[in-house]
Amino acid sequence: MATSSAQAVFVTSKVLENVAAIPSMARTEEAFLLLLMSYVAYIEATRMHVKGNAMRYLAVIGLLLASGLFAAAGSSPAYAERRAFELTIEDTKIVLVENQSFHTFAFNGQVPGPLMHVQEGDDVEVTVTNLTTLPHTIHWHGLLQRGSWQNDGVPDVTQKAIAPGDSYTYKFKADPAGTMWYHCHVNVHEHVAMRGMWGPLVVEPRNPRPIEKEITKDYLLMLSTWVSKWADRPGEGGEPGDVHDFFTINGKAFPDTQPIRVKEGDLVRLRLFGSGDAVHSIHLHGHVFEVFAKDGHPLPAPYKADTILIGPGERYDIIFRADNPGRWMVHDHVDSHTVNGRKGHGGIMTVVEYEGIPNDQPWYHWGHKKFEPDFYYESALKKPLGMHEAEVFKGTPAK
What we know:
Blueprint: H1 2-20, H2 28-47, H3 52-75, E1 82-97, E2 100-107, E3 115-119, E4 123-130, E5 139-141, E6 167-173, E7 178-183, H4 188-194, E8 198-204, H5 210-214, E9 217-226, E10 246-249, E11 260-262, E12 267-274, E13 280-284, E14 289-294, E15 297-305, E16 307-310, E17 315-321, E18 327-332, E19 339-340, E20 343-344, E21 349-354, E22 386-388, E23 396-397
Helix pairs in contact: 1-2, 1-3, 2-3
C-alpha cells in the first residue's frame, strides 16, 4: 500500500508539472491537452494498481484543472488569431499641402502607413519587402516582444537591415494592448523624421475599460514635421540645425487636413502620436478632455485638461464628450507649428465639426471642399480586425 501511495503521488506530481508549464493565457486546446494527460495519468495509475482514494484523487485533480482552463478560455478569446500581413517600402511622392511635395519611403505607397488593427494576444506575422534603394527595418513601438526580441527591428542589434530588393518576416505576439505604432529604425533622423516611415498599430484589449465600451467615435492623429530643403533629396537630411517649416497631421497640413465630424452626445477618443521629431502642445477648443492612456496604457488616475504636451515617440489617448455644438479648433499651441513654410494659418490644425451646424459660409475653409472619409482612420477602425489601407493617404511613385 505504501508503494501504491508513493506511485500515486508521483503520477500526480507529473500531471501538475505539465499543468505548470501551460502558459497563463489559457486556451481551449491546452485544456484538451490537460484532459488527455489526466486520462493517461489515470491509465498509468490503474496499470500500477493504485486503488481507491488515490485513483479518484488523480482523476478529480485533472478534471478540475482542465475545467478551470476551459472556463478561462471561455472568458477570453478561445484562440490567439494568427494575422499575416504584407508591407512594401516604396519610393513615393506625397503632397503635404498645396504645391509642397515630399519624397518619402512609404509603407504600401501611403503616408501614414496602413492601419494594423489586432487583438491583444494575437500572433502577428508581417512580411516586409524593400523596394527602395536604401536599407530599412521596422520597429514595433510599444510591443514588448517577450521571447521574440529578434523581431524588435533594430539594425545591427536584433537583425541585419533589409537590403534593397530583399524581404524579411517579423513574427511577434500583440502584447500589450493599446495605441502603438510602427516605424523604420534605420537612419531615424531622416527616415522617421521626414520620410514618412510610420504607421498606426492598434491592439484591442481583451478586457476594455468601461469608458472604452462607450466610445462612439475614434480618431488617429499622427503628428509630424518636415524640412522642405530636403524634400527631393532622399538619403539626406535630418541634420543638426535643420529648420522645420512644414507640420502635418496624418501627412497633411491645414487646410488640406480634414474636419473631425461628431454629433452631440458622442463620446470621442483622439489617439495622438508623436511620430515626428518635435514636441507638440495640442489644444482642443470648447471642451475639456480626459487623458485616459499614456503610450497605450490606461492611467490609474485619468486627469482632465484642454491642452496636452506630446513628445517624439509618445502616444496619448484623450476622450471628450461632444456636449457643446459648434465648430471648434484643434491645433498645436507651439505656434510656429501652425505655418506652411512662411505662410501662417496652416500646419497642425483641424476642426471639430458638429452635425447640424451649417458649414456653407463662403469664408469657412472647408465650406465648399470635398470631405475625404477615413482621414483619421475612423472608418478603418470600424472594420473587422486586420490591416487596412486608405486611399486618402496614397502618393504617387517617385522618379
